[in-house]
Design a protein that fits this description.
11 strands, mainly beta, single chain, seven-stranded mixed beta sheet, globular, four-stranded antiparallel beta sheet, 113 residues
Length: 113
């Protein structure tokens, strides 16, 4: 059974940076496309970024394009989300997802002065 654990979320000032990690256990991530999503209370979960399992192709939501970077290190069974130039509207719980089935528990990112 594949399990995902996110980490790296914390309180950061506007304009700051964070790197989120999504570490997998129980199975290799090599064969999964991985996505990062975020959710705020009362709103639907929205996709942020994704990376393929084959050629490492990436896709970003317009709201984060140019500021966030998704990457994967298959040797460490880990996917990262580098977030730069953070804005208050980036505040959310961030989740990673492997394939269509496996979700982590989320990590809180708060952008505030």
């Amino acid at each position: 059974q594949l399990q995902l654990v996110e980490s790296g979320g914390e309180l950061v000032q506007p304009g700051g940076s964070l790197r989120l990690s999504c570490v997998a256990s129980g199975y290799t991530l090599d064969y999964y496309a991985i996505g990062w999503f975020r959710q705020v209370p009362g709103k639907e979960r929205e996709d942020v970024a994704c990376i393929t399992s084959t050629d490492g192709g990436t896709h970003y939501a317009d709201s984060v394009k140019g500021r966030f970077t998704i990457s994967r290190d298959n040797a460490k069974n880990t996917v990262y989300l580098q977030m730069n130039s953070l804005k208050p509207e980036d505040t959310a719980v961030y989740f990673c997802k492997a394939g269509e089935t496996y979700w982590g528990q989320g990590t809180q990112v708060t952008v505030s002065s």
